[in-house]
Design a protein that fits this description.
single chain, about 450 residues, about 40% helix, about 20% strand
């Protein structure tokens, strides 16, 4: 049964061809060069922030560290014991993050984190130890040092006043000291992509890229220190490498991605807390994919193309179509609809029309394949920039982990774009940013 012509027409803007993908790589390469260079950095949209992490793990790291991971919709505290060659022991606890904190006050946010940290330490009998802590903070930060990170802007639905422009390490350290329960020294702040890269590199020496495709998207990679012009010692540093936190979600904020966007993207952008920002991220990440699908479905209903033109209360609600639904729909084998039926019921439709299911699947596939194509373009840009022939990419995030086809799509599109002979491996980063934060903290604490 063919897909309805109106559906094909609605999704054609998502079907990026080889030529458009090559154009994305070309434009992204140019924007990244601007981010790295000192004189163009202030006006660059891909900021390419210096992470101050110059040492990749050796596998010999030792010590006991705490790690804190604030990534968006989740928040974890970890105790990580690095035993050199013997491996790593991790105890962790996830805390339910009240959504009110995403738009509350700075004190409420950091007091909640400090309280959870205190509870964790007391539960694990650590209240009398003075431990170094690595803080994974997954929002755009400009670093002035390994333990100094100034928030540039909130993303992923957060909008806490009074934090932008401040050193978040200081805000958390003050909250810990206000409570006075535990002695903790925050020795490193890092982005979740850096944590993912470090964690993966601990097991795999060839890991040079850390990628997140979840609620949001971002990547980091290993650059030559001499190219990291925003690092004050870029010409004199004895260390050859510097991990660069790209903050690639903002790619396109200056209009260079318009040729790859659709009218639906523009509608989604308008209803986010940060319109006009994080353009690339809004085309890729889990926070937005479901809403894009919902808008197309609502339009198809209005045209009488799907569900006999009958709507439901739920499909009319913004953000009601979860991105997890794309994974459900696309996990059904062709001609089978067990998961699709459940999604359709969840959205308040009683219909059992096969044409609706085929159309819904086609819409989901268009949105998720564009996400994977753009992500592949980003990875290819980084691999070309490093000019290496073999690389491992450490990946984390709900979209990569749970979408049934995402890994295969990324692999396929990267192969289409890379120069012949370049070998790459995509691997899921276990205990990603938490273990990575501990590795960075262990190295930072030892070098003091």
């Amino acid at each position: 049964m063919p897909v309805h012509p109106e559906v094909e027409n609605a999704i054609k803007g998502f079907l990026l061809d080889q030529e458009k993908m090559a154009e994305v790589v070309e434009r992204m390469t140019k924007e990244m060069k601007m981010g790295l260079a000192k004189d163009t950095h202030p006006r660059a949209v891909i900021k390419c922030f210096v992470s101050y992490v110059q040492d990749l793990p050796t596998g010999k790291e030792r010590g006991k560290c705490l790690a804190l991971d604030l990534g968006g919709s989740n928040f974890r505290v970890l105790l990580v014991v690095l035993n050199g060659e013997a491996g790593v022991d991790i105890q962790s606890k996830s805390y339910v993050f009240p959504s009110t904190l995403m738009t509350g006050t700075a004190d409420e946010l950091f007091d909640f984190i400090a309280a959870s940290l205190g509870d964790f330490c007391i539960e694990n009998g650590l209240e009398n130890e003075s431990l170094p802590l690595g803080f994974t903070f997954s929002f755009p930060c400009q670093q002035k040092g390994i333990n100094k990170g100034t928030l540039v802007s909130w993303t992923k639905g957060f909008n806490v006043p009074g934090v932008v422009g401040k050193n978040v390490v200081e805000l958390l350290q003050q909250a810990i000291e206000r409570r006075g329960e535990v002695r903790i020294n925050i020795v490193a702040i890092l982005n979740d992509t850096v944590g993912t890269l470090m964690s993966c590199a601990y097991h795999n020496r060839n890991c040079r890229i850390g990628l997140i495709v979840g609620t949001g998207t971002n990547a980091c990679y290993v650059e030559k220190t001499v190219n990291a012009e925003c690092f004050e010692n870029y010409q004199t540093s004895p260390k050859q490498s510097m991990i660069i936190n790209c903050e690639w979600g903002a790619f396109g904020d200056n209009g260079v991605l318009e040729f790859a966007r659709t009218s639906y993207d523009k509608i989604v952008d308008k209803v986010t807390p940060n319109p006009g920002r994080q353009t690339f991220e809004k085309c890729i990440s889990g926070m937005y994919m479901g809403e894009i699908v919902r808008l197309i479905v609502v339009e198809m209903i209005a045209k009488g193309v799907m569900f006999h033109g009958e709507t439901s209360q739920k499909i009319q609600n913004r953000w009601a179509f979860q991105s997890a639904y794309l994974s459900d729909v696309e996990s059904d084998a062709v001609g089978e609809y067990r998961h699709t039926n459940k999604v359709i019921r969840d959205m308040g439709f009683m219909g059992n029309n096969e044409a609706d299911k085929i159309n819904l699947r086609r819409i989901c596939e268009a949105v998720s394949s564009r996400s994977a194509k753009l992500c592949a373009c980003g990875l290819v840009t980084l691999i070309n920039k490093m000019n290496i022939n073999e690389v491992v990419v450490g990946i984390d995030g709900s979209v990569y982990r749970y979408h049934p086809k995402y890994h295969d799509m990324l692999t396929m599109y990267m192969k289409q774009l890379l120069k012949p002979g370049v070998k790459f491996e995509l691997t899921v980063s276990e205990d990603g940013s938490g273990k990575g934060a501990a590795l960075v903290a262990a190295t930072a604490a030892q070098s003091k």
